[in-house]
Amino acid sequence: MKASETMSSAMQGLFIMRCIISEYGRRLILIIYSYVDWIYAYLYLMNFYAAMTCSSHIPTVFELLKTMSSAMEGNNDCRVRGNKSDKTRRSWSTREEEVLLAALKELVVQGWKSYNGFRAGYWNKLEEAMKKEFPSTDLKGMSHINSKTTTWKKNYYSLSAILNRSGVGFNLKGTHMIECNDEQWDQIVKSWPHLDAWREIFGKDRATGENAEDVMDVVNELHQNQETFQLFSEGKNRKNNDGFFDMVELLAEINRMVRTTDKRLETIASRIGYDFDQSKVRKDVFDRLSNIEGLSINDKFDICEILAKEVDKMDIFMGLPDEAKTQYVMRLLALKYGTL
Q: By the 8 A CB rule, do 191 and 175 touch?
């Protein structure tokens, strides 16, 4: 009787193991193998072993395996999401924000801020400044500092748009809050202690319009994307980096050419406007000369030629009162004929 009971228990045990291996075993082993918290797994295995010692606990075994599998996978998912969140989100202390603002101001003074934003590589400079002040800090330039400066910039632009509205002011000394009439109060009232610093750092970033973006914006973005990509592909496809930096240099050169062209176009435009004004003035010169008595037609032609060649003298002539124009014209004629 005892032998038959022993055999029956053995058969039941083999049946249980076969079911476990076929239905849940491979999945369970993979989960346990990849699971870091061995204490958590150990406790479940102890419960699993206790359930295995009694054939009447077959449903308990399967329920335990299902619970263990789902719990482990859920915990792993939380760990992955938690790690991802920790890399991109971080609470900043007031002192850390003050140091970052000071470092950004220093970069502005040192010329790191270009026409429409900071030059590529400024993250590294800011990260070095933060580590110098906080040696044990976990702040990273590409993630934390970039996120913080981006948020500040958005806040600055939002505040600037609000402060440009009528009936809105800002208290730089004391509360650092927006001051406005009752009609706008509920919409925009809030404390903004960093506005003055943001103005110094971001104030000229939108000289060409709210949504303007020049070539250096693209260069900076490409450089930042390259830094991000290198974190995942370090040691691979190094030849591609040369092509990337060649493209960056090309875009930078195009940007310099565009800015030079813009300046030349501004000069040309101003010159065209000036020439247009001068052409208008030259047409008025002969009429002004007609009011001067004692001038022959040839004298008038000579004066027109002199004033057309020497713009400074034309400006003097047009700026003189009528009674002085006669003496000035006589003086020019005397200089021309050598009688003065």
A: yes
